[in-house]
Specification:
Elements (H helix, E strand, L loop, with lengths): L6 H9 L15 H7 L32 H4 L1 H13 L4 H10 L5 H4 L6 E3 L5 E5 L4 H6 L6 H12 L9 E4 L13 H18 L3 E5 L1 H8 L5 H4 L4 E4 L6 E7 L2 H6 L4 H19 L2
The protein binds uracil.
The site of uracil has 12 residues, from helix 8.
Length: 281
């Protein structure tokens, strides 16, 4: 530790570091008075203060609005970008990476995870829901929350007892904030991914879980009540292959409308029959 013989030595030492020695004077100092009379006050009047950053002088005639980036704002461009990314994905893994690299859907910004798909793509059955909810967003897996658990229970009643028996995904891979319905722009931006997803899984049976996936992929405005209990085919826009499809109530809807459970049960029995005839032969 440094020690000093007297106060003067201490002041000299402090001065050598540029420290003002006034506080060490013998008499008390009135700092307010000193500041008022000082030429070096920090108070600068706004009128005389020099701007810290010189304003950019742009003649009005040469002003150009900032150009927008089409792929961020134009729904058609987003769709085309997704289509191009999807077309270059020959496997499910590469499709997952393609989706993760896509920035053309604003839902990605608020989501915690990209929810791709889960299950066995070789069992002939593919289920497609709407979009991830809060639990799916956190875990990065489809249908793991309350409605997912109800769906799993219902499927186990017809002998489909684990995810190893089917493959499941969503129309949209990112959670819409507050679980709102995805907008038509968001659906359009992600459409090439779900179309390619179906192409790669190549199921014998497609089950649309709820109205959003059914309307989007069957290109119809009809709701689940009109579409359920009908012999429907999904035609792939990529291969033109026709796949037997059926439309089921969304489990979230069943939780709100228990009177529809009987219809849902009948639709599950149809799925069981289809599975038996289409996947076991
Ligand atoms: N609802 C859906 O449509 N998908 C999920 O993954 C979860 C809830």
């Amino acid at each position: 530790m440094t020690s000093f013989k007297n106060q003067k030595a201490a002041k000299e030492w402090l001065k050598s570091f540029g420290v003002d020695d006034t506080p060490l004077g013998d008499a008390p100092t009135n700092w307010l008075e000193l500041a008022k009379n000082s030429k070096h006050t920090n108070q600068v009047s706004p009128a005389t203060a020099a701007p810290l950053v010189k304003p950019l002088q742009v003649p009005v005639s040469s002003y150009q609005p900032i150009k927008t980036i089409p792929s961020l704002l134009n729904p058609k461009a987003q769709y085309l970008t997704a289509k191009s990314l999807a077309s270059e994905a020959p496997t499910l893994e590469s499709l997952k990476s393609a989706i993760e690299s896509f920035n053309g859907c604003s839902l990605k910004k608020t989501a915690s995870n990209t929810v791709f798909g889960e299950g066995n793509p070789n069992k002939g059955l593919m289920l497609i829901g709407e979009a991830p909810g809060a639990d799916e967003d956190l875990q990065g897996k489809p249908f793991v929350g309350m409605s997912g658990q109800l769906l799993s229970k219902a499927l186990s009643c017809i002998g489909i007892s684990s995810r190893e028996d089917y493959y499941i995904t969503n129309t949209i891979p990112w959670r819409p904030p507050g679980n709102r319905q995805p907008s038509s722009t968001e659906i359009e931006a992600c459409l090439p991914f779900i179309e390619k997803h179906i192409e790669l899984v190549n199921p014998k049976i497609l089950a649309f879980i709820g109205g959003t996936s059914a309307k989007t992929l069957l290109k119809t405005n009809q709701g689940v009540n009109k579409l359920r209990n009908r012999e429907i085919y999904y035609e792939s826009p990529l291969s033109r292959k026709k796949i037997r499809a059926l439309v089921l109530y969304h489990p979230a809807y069943l939780l709100r409308s228990p009177s529809k459970k009987e219809n849902f049960w009948n639709d599950l029995l149809t799925l069981k029959k289809l599975l038996y005839t289409l996947t076991l032969n």
